[in-house]
Amino acid sequence: MNARLEKFDGAFLLLLAVAAAFVPFVLSGYEIKLATTITIQAGLAVALGFVVGPAGLTSVGHAAFYGVAAYILAMMSPKSGPADMLLTAAIAIFGAAAFALVVGAVSIRSRGMYFILMTIAFGQLGYHLFNDTGIGGKSDGSYVQFRPELHLFWTDVSFDKAPRFYMLVYVVVFLVVGACWWLRRSAFGSVLLAARDNEARTRAFGFSPYVVRLIAFVISGGMAGAMGYLTAAQHGFVAPQMLAWHASAFALVMVLIGGKDTTSGPAIGAILLLLAEEILQRWTEHWLVGVGLIIVVAVIAAPRGLVPFVAGLFAPKQAHHG
Amino acid sequence: MVEPVLRASGIGKRFGGLLAVDNVNLDLHPREIHAVIGPNGAGKSTFLSTIAGDLPPTTGQVFFQGQEVTHLPVDKRTRLGIGRTYQRSAVIAGFTALDMVRLAMLHRVSSAFGMLSPLASNDAATRGAYEALARVGLSERAGITTDFMSHGEKRRLEIAAVLALDPKILLLDEPLAGLGPDESSAVVALIQSLKSHCAIMLIEHDIDAVFSVADRITVLDNGKAIASGTPDAVRNTPAVQQAYLGFGED
Ligand SMILES: Nc1ncnc2c1ncn2[C@@H]1O[C@H](COP(=O)(O)OP(=O)(O)OP(=O)(O)O)[C@@H](O)[C@H]1O
Ligand SMILES: [Mg+2]
């Protein structure tokens, strides 16, 4: 990433973090719930962007990691009272990461189209596992009757109130986005970029592209799991569709629209798409056509994503003669 | 005689119907420059790749410091001390020269934990990278993105990166190709000076350079080693003179 894009990326992240911090104070009711959903999806998109961008892995299976974690919470939730948040979250994230390890270990050796196909296949496998078998309530899905509680030493913290749940989501997504931003700038991120550009050279520098990509994939899968957990906790409901490849593809669209080579891009892509969806839905029943049009226009106008596009607007003119 | 640091024995590499490398033996001794020459398509790069690990040989074995490495992946061989450059410049796009060489330093100076901090904050990697860049005369160009470097600079950058690996053996695939005369003699001098550090296998078409720096020469033709020995011995081999008719002049 060039220095200017890096600055813009950082500025956008800061702006988003500050703006999102105001949500519980300036919004209310339904809007806070919408903001919660958008924030979680932004976290998912950023986690996915980390593998699509630096790792060069176009995963169309991330919804499976997201959905598996959601199902783990549903299955671990007692009918009689709230589950222990730290315990269930740890297991859900671990489960998602373990699934990502299996998917990644098998898929990452395939490149390009074949990698995409493998991730779709694994995702659908997850979808059908919950849709067709008895696990987790078949195609009807399953409920999380009580939102999990956080047991701290001296007290139990409930997140039943929307503003407080939003704050929980804010903190978790902040950590996930911060980790992705940090990893992209780290030596580990540089190795990923090098492997994306020149696999042979990177190997001859002593790094296994397979191993570094797999590590990135597992981290990202675990993060996607955290987002699935939050979604299940928010809605109190899980369904097989959460794992389906449509969901994976929609997250990928967010990543690409915002810009896979930045951390802020996928988040901005998520916010724009979900807001557009929300607004168009109120306006017309043919809102999906509208969303499609927005995607087409965005991709034509800013093929590398909106954040690089905006950063490019501020490029000094002489840079083009380089 | 001292143990060879590298022993390639009976190396063969088949691409479908083509036997690109045919039963080649080569020992590389410490502090030795062993040149591999031969006409285009003779199998030199393929042979080098079987030693570096980029290509698995169809037959034969590779021993490095007495350990068999025939089936070890490239990254493991690099960590053991085998460094290589590519015939076609293999710089990393979007990286500055400094970052690319820092990357090469990493596996020596960084713990797993250190991988979490940015390249630029790794002082050991930075110091080593500047040293390596200085040796190839690229200190002034450290901050330049590789995409904006000239062909000669890219070739030298690659050598800097492979020096940063601090290899025990260095496999150079036509390091002089496309260099201007000044750059070329600087690189020849550099190769000469590296000898005290590591053993070098040098593939090169520049015959004058080869005969001036090589301690031993192996000549490949059609995948076969048709001669091997000191420069004088090789020069006087009839088969070599035949294979090189109309070739040695460019
Ligand atoms: N990956 C490959 N697949 C099929 N054939 C190959 C492959 N790599 C090389 N060859 C063939 O093997 C033979 C040896 O190629 P190689 O590149 O090793 O020759 P070389 O001696 O390095 O030649 P040059 O001096 O032109 O670099 C050539 O006929 C080449 O076309
Ligand atoms: Mg060659």
Keywords:
heterodimer, A: 322 residues, ABC transporter involved in vitamin B12 uptake, BtuC, 13 helices, 4 strands, 71% helix, B: 250 residues, alpha/beta, Rossmann fold, 6-stranded mixed β-sheet, 9 helices, binds adenosine-5'-triphosphate, binds magnesium ion
In short:
The complex is a heterodimer of chains A (322) and B (250). Chain A has 13 helices and four strands. Chain A has 322 residues and is mainly alpha-helical.
Characterize the structure shown:
The complex is a heterodimer of chains A (322) and B (250). Chain A is an all-alpha fold and 322 residues long. Chain A has a single domain, classed as ABC transporter involved in vitamin B12 uptake, BtuC (Orthogonal Bundle). Chain A contains 13 helices and 4 strands. A two-stranded antiparallel sheet of chain A has the order 1-4. In chain A, a hairpin with a 4-residue loop joins strand 2 and strand 3. In chain A, helix 2 packs across helix 11 and helix 4 runs antiparallel to helix 9. The longest helix of chain A has 27 residues. The relative contact order of chain A is 0.19. The mean pLDDT of chain A is 93. Chain B has 9 helices and 10 strands. Chain B is globular, with a radius of gyration of 18 Å. Chain B has 2 domains: 161 residues, Rossmann fold, CATH 3.40.50.300; 57 residues, no CATH class. By secondary structure, chain B is an alpha/beta fold. Classes of the chains: A mainly alpha (322), B alpha/beta (250). At the A-B interface, helix 6, helix 7 and helix 8 of A face helix 2 and helix 3 of B. The complex binds adenosine-5'-triphosphate and magnesium ion (MG).
Question: How would you write the strand order of the largest sheet of chain B?
Answer: 6-7-8-3-9-10
The overall pLDDT average of chain B reads 92
The overall pLDDT of chain A, averaged over residues, is 93
Flag low-confidence runs of chain A: none
CATH architecture of chain A: Orthogonal Bundle
Helix content of chain A: over 70%
Shape category of chain B = globular
Oligomeric state:
heterodimer
CATH superfamily of the largest domain in chain B: P-loop containing nucleotide triphosphate hydrolases
Number of strands of chain B: 10
Measured between the Cα atoms of the first and last residue of chain B, the distance is 36 Å
How many domains comprise the coordinates of chain B? 2
CATH topology of the largest domain in chain B: Rossmann fold
Bound molecules: adenosine-5'-triphosphate, magnesium ion
Strand content of chain B: 15-25%
Q: What is the overall number of helices of chain B?
A: 9
Which pair of protein chains has the largest interface, and what are the residue counts? A-B, 24 and 35 residues
The largest beta-sheet of chain A arranges its strands as 1-4
Main sheet characteristics of chain B: 6 strands, mixed
Globally, the shape of chain A reads globular
